[in-house]
């Protein structure tokens, strides 16, 4: 028995094959059995480094790259990055969904924070259950002193 196509592309969790055998005697004799193949899908979750650190000035231009968050997955799944949790992080920073490039997006920092600890989550598109990993990105704001 040989596999003709990449089974990874399919979504089936199980394949059943009926195998029949015949002899060439007279009278012909035959037998059959069912072979069940259970697929292991999304065996590996993403692996993400960190914690990451970055620095920005309080006069940083929106769109400025702060840090590149990277992850890998031993299954060739597509990875999606998001900032979770801390509302300040979600309001001040953005992460590119597919590259992990984290940028500054606001037009000003408030006066309350000088260090922001942002949680970045990466999720694979594995089937049947996506897997996730998280890391922290610690961003320090360099404040101007008068």
Summarize the SSE layout with pairings.
Blueprint lengths: L13 E9 L7 E9 L8 E2 L3 E6 L7 E4 L2 E2 L6 E6 L2 H6 E3 L5 E4 L10 E10 L7 E11 L4
Overview of the molecule:
With 146 residues, this protein is mainly beta. It is built from one helix and eleven strands, in the order βββββββαββββ. It has one helix at residues 87-92; strands spanning 14-22, 30-38, 47-48, 52-57, 65-68, 71-72, 79-84, 93-95, 101-104, 115-124, 132-142. A four-stranded mixed beta sheet has the order 4-11-10-7. The protein is rod-shaped. The model has no long low-confidence stretch (mean pLDDT 87).
- Provide the β-strand percentage band: over 45%
Strands across the major sheet, in which order?
4-11-10-7
Portion of residues in helices? under 10%
Shape: rod-shaped
Order of helices and strands: EEEEEEEHEEEE
Q: Which structural category fits the helices and strands?
A: mainly beta
Distance between the termini: 77 Å
Taking Cα atoms only, what radius of gyration do you get, to the nearest Å? 26 Å
Can you tell me the residue ranges where pLDDT is under 50 for at least 5 consecutive residues? none
Profile the largest sheet. 4 strands, mixed
Q: Tell me how many strands there are.
A: 11
Please work out how many helical segments DSSP would assign.
1
Gist of the model:
The chain is 4% helix and 45% strand. It has one helix at 87-92, and strands at residues 14-22, 30-38, 47-48, 52-57, 65-68, 71-72, 79-84, 93-95, 101-104, 115-124, 132-142.
Key structural traits:
11 strands, 1 helix, 4% helix, three-stranded antiparallel beta sheet, 146 residues, four-stranded mixed beta sheet, mainly beta
């Amino acid at each position: 028995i040989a596999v003709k196509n990449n089974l990874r592309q399919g979504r089936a969790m199980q394949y059943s094959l009926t195998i029949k055998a015949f002899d060439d005697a007279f009278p012909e004799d035959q037998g059959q059995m069912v072979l069940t193949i259970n697929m292991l899908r999304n065996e590996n979750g993403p692996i993400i480094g960190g914690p990451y650190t970055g620095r920005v000035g309080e006069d940083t231009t929106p769109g400025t790259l702060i840090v590149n968050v990277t992850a890998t997955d031993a299954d060739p799944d597509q990875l999606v990055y998001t900032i979770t949790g801390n509302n300040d992080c979600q309001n001040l920073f953005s992460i590119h969904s597919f590259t992990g490039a984290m940028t500054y997006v606001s037009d000003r920092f408030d006066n309350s924070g000088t260090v922001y600890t942002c949680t970045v989550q990466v999720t694979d598109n594995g089937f049947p259950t996506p897997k996730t990993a998280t890391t922290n990105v610690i961003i320090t704001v360099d404040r101007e002193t008068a």
